[in-house]
Structures are given as structure tokens and as C-alpha cells.
Amino acid sequence: MSKNIVVIGAGVAGLTTALLLSRIPGYKIVVAAKHMAGDYDIEYASPWAGANYMPVSVHDTDAAEWDRKTWVPLEDLARNHPEAGVHFQECEIHSRSKDVGSATATWFAELLSPNPWFKDVVPNFRSLPKNTLNPGIDSATVFTSVCINTAIYLPWLVSQCLKNGVVFKRAVFNHILDATSVLPQVHLVVNCTGLMASTLGGVEDKSVIPARGQIVIVRNDAGKMLDISGTDDGEDEACYVMTRAAGGGTILGGSYQKGNWESQPDPNLAVRIMKRAVEMCPSLTGGKGIEHLDIIRHGVGLRPVREGGTRIAKERMGDVWIVHNYGAGGAGYQSSYGCAQAAVDLVQDAFSRAKL
Q: What is the pLDDT, as a whole number, of residue 354?
């Protein structure tokens, strides 16, 4: 008899978990979610992401292992499956000594390291000579990364799930056990609700908070991915540039505003974002000002940050096993396959325990 599984949430965590589960014989999977690929809603973080592979996880932690295990599938997609909307891109990480101790530099500590754990994971990792750096930049590293066009990638994940028999349903749940009503019998629920884990009954994890990110998407091509250790405009503001695959435009960011639920773009922040991006990456406008940026749209997304890190755990609730996979914050894509596999391992463990 097949095991019936309901995955709550259709962001990158829910879709990747459903995809890996769908490859296991004997599972019937339903993805039930309020928001689906193609939606743009402030509660639904995944469409707003850049998205890329720039690990900020600390060496010898679960988070680093999840990031490590995600690189191989992302590399395979970029190399062999262009229809997924993932492409290789050279990534430069710039560091300023004056940012040491700031919120952004602390968050990026591993990424900024001249000897990070992921140097042996990504291709072509190296330090850049000091004489090649712009004024004010004290050190820099470069490596081959990937950038993901979320408008293509999320529907691609859905298509792969559908090909494997996964069913998708729109649903809104007040309590996690409400998901057991999706099928006549549900054996296990996977909770991939992201930010909404803070309000979902039966979970109500108050350590999950938004970290507001604001971006400007432009038609200008940066030619590479860039990030820097901090800005002069405030600790909760950041500067990064990345060009999405398959004509997805270039993302200019950004901000990391914890606890801020504001869904509308701040025009003044947008101007600061564009000015910082053009200064860091003059090739965007050929050395000209922000008036030469060709804007597609402005966007705001809320990273589902969980104090203490991503929660991947299982628990018994009534007669149903619950497996949690939420709270990855800004690492949702770059840890997606590692986190999903860890959740799948817990699903299999739960079913093995049920047999005993």
C-alpha cells in the first residue's frame, strides 16, 4: 500500500522536498499550498530571490553540509539542463576592512574568508591580486557559482514533480493537522511553510522572523556576480549584483531588515541600491549614472529567517508523523537539495519506525 504524504508549501523548500520524495517508489505525494509558482505575494519568498550559491554557513555545521550537498545538483542543472533556468556565473566577493564587526560582515563572515570551507566545492576558487581591486577594497576572492532564474526554475521544479505523479492543490490551513484532510488517509505531513511557520497552528515557531530584502531588477547585463562586505548606508543594507539565466534580468540588491514586514518598495532605498550597484559594477551602465539603468521592476521579498537556523526535525502529532523543513532564511536555494534530502531521510525513518 502506498504511503500518503502531504507537503505544505510550494516554495523552493517544499518543491525540492516533494521532488526528492517523488523519486521513491511507494509514496503518493500531494503538495498543498496557499501560494504556487507564478504567484508574487509577500508571504511567498521564493519568487523574489536572486537566487545563487554563495555559502555563508559556518564550517562543520549541518548548514554547511546542506550547502555542500546542494552544489552538485545545481552544477548538474547548469551544465546539463538549461531548461531549468540555472547558469554558471563568475562570482566576486569584495571585502573592506572597515566593515569588520558590522551586521553584514558578520553574516557574511565565511563568504568573506580567504580560506572558506567551500573553496574545495565550487570550481576555480582563488584570491584576486590587491593591485586589481577598486579603491577601498582590501581583499577579494572569486569562484564559479550559479545564478538561478526563479521565474523559470520554480515552474521547472513543478513540472518535474508532475512528471513523477505529484498532485498540486491550493489550500490554506489554520493548523498543521488540517493537512490530513487533503486525502482520505494521510500518513505523514511535511511542513515547508517558511515564514508562515510562525503562525501555523501546531507549529507557531516564533523564532521565525522576516528579513526584508529589497531589489531592483534591470535589463542591464553585469557580466558577473558581485557582493561586498558592507555599505556606508547602514548595517541592514547590502550591495550585490547578479544576472539571472535565460534573459531573467540583473538583480540589484539589497537589504537585510530583520523584523520588517513592509511589502512595498522604499523609493529612497531603491535609489541607494542602484547607486551602490553602479559604483561597484560600472559595466552596468558603461561608467554612467543610475539614469542609464533600464528598470524592469522593483521587488520586496521576506527571507524566512529562523533564529538558530533551519529546522529539519520530525515529531509525532496525534496519529500522524510531521517532518519540518523551514527557516532557511537567505539560503533557501543554495541549501535546498541538502535540506530536502535531510527531510526525506526523516520521512523514511518515520515510516521505518511505524513498522516496528
A: 66
> What does the mean pLDDT of the chain come to?
96
175-178 CB contacts, 8 Å cutoff, 24+ apart: 175/200, 175/201, 175/202, 176/8, 176/200, 176/201, 176/202, 176/203, 176/317, 176/322, 177/202, 177/317, 177/318, 177/320
Rg of the chain, C-alpha, whole Å: 20
Position 254 scores a pLDDT of: 94
pLDDT tens-digit readout, 268-309: 999 999 999 999 999 999 999 999 999 999 999 999 999 999
Give the position of cell 572558506: 116
Q: How many CB atoms lie within 10 A of CB 288?
A: 11
Q: With 90 as the cut, is the pLDDT of residue 239 above it?
A: yes
Q: What is the DSSP-derived secondary structure letter of residue 328?
A: B
C-alpha 318/C-alpha 314 separation (Å) is 13
Annotated binding residues for FAD: 193
Extents of the domains making up the chain: 3-353
Element (H, E) at 143: strand 139-148
pTM for the full predicted model: 0.97
In this prediction, residue 336 carries a pLDDT of: 98
Spatial separation of the C-alpha atoms in residues 2 and 196, rounded to whole Å: 29
Dihedral angle over CA of 235, 236, 241, 246, nearest 10: 160
Bond into 63 cis (ω within 30): no
- Rounded to whole angstroms, the Cα distance separating 69 from 87 reads 18
Which CATH number applies to 3-353?
3.30.9.10
Binding-site residue set: 193, 330
**Which residues sit in the known binding site for D-dopa?**
330
